[in-house]
Specification:
The complex is a heterodimer of chains A (about 120) and B (about 110).
Chain A: E1 5-7, E2 10-13, E3 19-24, E4 31-37, E5 44-50, E6 53-57, E7 64-68, E8 74-78, E9 87-94, E10 105-106, E11 110-114
Parallel strand pairs in A: 2-11
Antiparallel strand pairs in A: 1-3, 3-8, 4-5, 4-9, 5-6, 7-8, 9-10, 9-11
Chain B: E1 4-7, E2 10-14, E3 19-25, E4 31-37, E5 44-49, E6 55-58, E7 61-65, E8 71-76, E9 85-92, E10 99-100, E11 104-109
Parallel strand pairs in B: 2-11
Antiparallel strand pairs in B: 1-3, 3-8, 4-5, 4-9, 6-7, 7-8, 9-10, 9-11
The chains are: A mainly beta (about 120), B mainly beta (about 110).
């Protein structure tokens, strides 16, 4: 039973560039949430996707966008990269059932460095 | 907006000592989860509490959810070196957004 897989593991970009991060959820999960984790901080909620639509968004600018595909996998896109976007980007999958989609299974993350 | 605060930020203990981390929310939570992140790793789900005053145990770990559903705690009895990591509480207020605290980093000296 595969867990959450993310790619790439590490990447380096320069300011102004664009990046796409990918996530495959755990088998049986239908919901994908993206988090940004700066060094020494807790994960910050970016947005959540369910049924191929963004159903809630955190306090992140429009430079952050996403997509969910029919197979439940998801992408996170960040445009016009800033130095402050350097962080670990975590994908978390869950199952939206009667009790919500609160129990999160995290992937290993994509470490983004912006120079 | 909703905030989840955790204290302490760091805790150094001798192996065998107990450890407690506390979590407080600015708003009433519908549920709270606890996650553990090992150094260099990713958060791993430990437990979810839903009911007011709920107490759950996992071996040496005891989790509590406050009566007002605005605070929670995690207590580890007789810490071991394998307990090293950062413990996060994370809460929901009924929407789909799970808000994480800043975490408590536990150091255990053998």
């Amino acid at each position: 039973d595969a867990g959450v897989t993310q790619s790439p593991t590490h990447l380096i970009k320069t300011r102004g560039q664009q990046v796409t991060l990918r996530c495959s959820p755990k088998s049986g999960h239908d919901t994908v949430s993206w988090y940004q984790q700066a060094l020494g901080q807790g994960p910050q909620f970016i947005f959540q996707y369910y049924e191929e639509e963004e159903r809630q968004r955190g306090n992140f600018p429009d430079r952050f966008s996403g997509h969910q595909f029919p197979n439940y996998s998801s992408e996170l896109n960040v445009n016009a990269l800033l130095l402050g976007d350097s962080a670990l980007y975590l994908c978390a999958s869950s199952y939206t059932g009667v009790y919500g989609a609160n129990v999160l299974t995290f992937g290993a993350g994509s470490r983004l460095t912006v120079l | 907006g909703q905030q989840v605060m955790q204290i302490p930020q760091y805790q150094h203990v001798q192996e065998g000592e107990d450890f407690t981390t506390y979590c407080n929310s600015s708003t009433t939570l519908s549920n709270i989860q606890w996650y553990k992140q090992r150094p260099g790793g990713h958060p791993v789900f430990l437990i979810q509490l839903v009911k007011s005053g709920e107490v759950k145990k996992q071996k040496r770990l005891t989790f509590q959810f406050g009566e007002a559903k605005k605070n929670s705690s995690l207590h580890i009895t007789a810490t071991q070196t394998t307990d090293v990591g950062t413990y996060f509480c994370a809460g929901n207020t009924g929407g789909f957004k799970t808000i994480f605290g800043a975490g408590t980093r536990l150091f255990v000296k053998a």
